[in-house]
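Example with several molecule types.
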Amino acid sequence: MAREKNTPVYVAALLLFLGGVGFLAFSAFTENSVYFLNVSEAKAVSPDKLTAARLFGAVSDQGIEKHSAGTGVTFHLQDKDNAAQVIVVSYSGAVPDTFKGGAEVIVEGGMGADGRFMARTLMTKCPSKYQKENRKI
Amino acid sequence: MYFFANVMQVLALLCALVCGCTALYALLGGKRSFASATNDDAWARQLEKGHWIVTGALLLASALLLHALYWRDYSLQYVASYTDNILPEFYRLTAFWAGQPGSMLFWALAVSVSGSLFARTRACKTLRPAVRLWYWAFFYAIMAFFTLVLTVWSNPFVTHSPVPADGNGLNPLLQNPGMIFHPPLLFLGYGGFTVPACLALAQTLAGRDDQSEVPWFRLARPFMLTAWIFLTAGIVLGAWWAYMELGWGGYWAWDPVENASLIPWLVGTASLHTLIVEERRDKLRRVNVCMMALTTISAFFATYIVRSGVIESVHAFGDSPVGVPLLVFIVVALVVAFLTAAFAPRAGKPLAALESREGMLTLVAWILLALAAIILLATMWPVLSALWMDAPRGLDAAFYNRVCLPLGAALMLFMAVCPWFAWDGGLRRKKIFLAAAGVFVIAAASLWNLGYRQFTPQITAAASITIIFGVLLLLKEHGFRRPVFLGAWGAHLGMALMALGIAFSGPYAEEQDMMLARGESGKIGEYTATLQEITGGRATGYEFITGRLQISKNDEMVGVVAPQRRIYDKFGTMQFSEVDVIPSLGDEIYASLLGLDNDMRVMVRVSVKPLVNWLWIGGTLLCLFPLVSLFGRGRTAAAAEKAVEAAVEEIASKAAPVRKIRRKRRK
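Resulting structure tokens for the full complex:
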């Protein structure tokens, strides 16, 4: 019967396929995974481990400084639930339209030696219609 | 008045519960007392009528919500949250699906209407009573879940006092036709898979009888195709909106919410392909029941990712209480689906060898499922990794690009070679296969010569060109006379064009942020952007600054882009970027204005996006061509039967002796 004849071929192909995809995914998993943390969680992790991380938080109303040379901004990123937990973030590049005090943002980058988080990317949360726009300053 | 709306929702819930339980009772408990088929038939008829109550109640509730939105009744929390006094009627009405409770109602309504539509078809009437009873048992279970969510966790008809004088309003970025139709298309896509899935499970549980009735996938095909078209259109439209409106220069960011919509699309597409094997060859029966159920469940899972707040996303959807009930529902549905398929009798025939059309379609389904699994796992990684790691870890866009793009390239390769394999194994048309291989080699070599030498994009592009060659050949041979083929091959043509667009506009895009004073210029690749002037002014409802940039290539003028930054009167200090492009089927120039400094210098981001418009052209074809097979095929089971007969003839006509005759005729 054909089932007996073909089953080993399919099993071998599936194993080969899963092996290949698994290897591809695993190697990428180990190299491309970064910490996903809230500010309070990030403060609990030792800074030397935070070489690659994505932080979630809100922009503090105080301490927003636009860089004088080029574009960029330095600001205080505070925990969404606990405003006392703050990390200073320095970001060079184009600042998004919706960046302002109180906005929820996502930054990607690494912790610098001086305790500042050097961000490569700065994203403000999409002002989605799924949440009412009442996070006033 | 909203008491009445709440009553409607509760009525729908009760009706679904009672009818669902009755169906189960008639099937299991009541079998002995109402043993005969005529009795089953009577039960099924009554249950079908019950569904009109559910649909009617949800329609009334929806009408009340639309009424409240139109007349700005801010006593409803929902209306106050998503509209305001100055929002035009169109956007007020479409706020129906702007928030979570409303979109749940919209989804429930869509599923309910599709169920009632199916009950009206002749196809439904041809089913045996036992199948109909099982179908309604599943369908009512899903409706009961939806209405339970609506009445308990996510009710759009919650009132509040004091009633505010004005609402919160809708963000200007979202007041755009593209964004308004993106969510309902996705919801219609998610909802449309429900009928085929319920039917698959029902026919399996009642025991399939191939003599007396048409198999589920043929009956439910119009529903499945329609849902797939809606889902595809929703995803493409979302990507296009992100590209044209948000001004960050990309169309896909591998954000959890984007990934969530892609998972059901991948699983649904895999199902469409494994179903071909069953339709043509009567194989993979149990697999297909699983695949169909999995498609629907993955749509629910997409909602779970988006709505539960379990993953942090760029899209602010917020936490909501529907997460836990959704997860419970998903787990129960998975168990039911897999048990149903596992205990079904093995009736299909075994697959042909791997190097056959059957084998290729299976491999394609594996790749699509692997993509879905990887995206699912990676999206959920911050939650999963937190279980054993000290702090949650997640994956960035580089991960997805590294893993998903090679798999996508492999997919395109299979699409290129699959048509030339025979169903039973081996090459069907050796000469054309060799010609296709030639096209692939020439395309790859030409790309190398032109300097496009990144491996994965090169393979993808060469495979896409080969697919286009193959599809055009197939359509020329017999596609235009047979809507089914025209639809399927046309969709492949669309997919190939999309892949071509992605393979170039992704890796070969050039992007440059420039700080320019008037008269200064900056270089980007072969292009030069010169700032001509900076103007400011007022238009209706907003103030703007425009930077006019002249774009030239080797001292030849290409065109002018004038990106803007706007400040809307109603939205305080928030600035909005208005992108401008020089559209082209080759290199598209894309510019956004990032800011203006005190020395009257502007910061602009200019990008060159090669072949990006083929992505949108391909996406449009991908949505439109399947419509041909939908309408060309006819909606009744009888027409579907004819199409299958035609397909069988088609296979027969591929046999060698017939081909000889054809060749003679050509002479």
